[in-house]
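Subject: Sanity check before I submit

Could someone independently write out the structure tokens for this chain? I want to compare against mine line by line before I put it in a report. The sequence has 88 residues.
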Amino acid sequence: MKQLLLIAVCSILAACSSSPTVYSQAPAQQLILDKQVSALTRNEVINGVTECEGSGLRAVVITTKRSINGFTADIPVEVTCMPKHRYY
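---
Independent answer below. Compare away.
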């Protein structure tokens, strides 16, 4: 009985330790350049913020930097809702 249990445990451990073929390669990723990212309009940012606040969450605006006439400016790209409580 102990041998049967030992064989069962060893076969389970051997099955778990085999490398999966599905996850053997990293997923394909693409670098998105700044010119390919569309900026949000002022109304889209305001609507996103009011939707977050209306649902009891805080709005976080994700921005990118763009060079405009030699100066860098923050351009809003996405509005994400996050919980109101911050844990430090």
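---
OP: Matches mine. For the report I'm noting this point. Strands lie at 58-68, 71-82.
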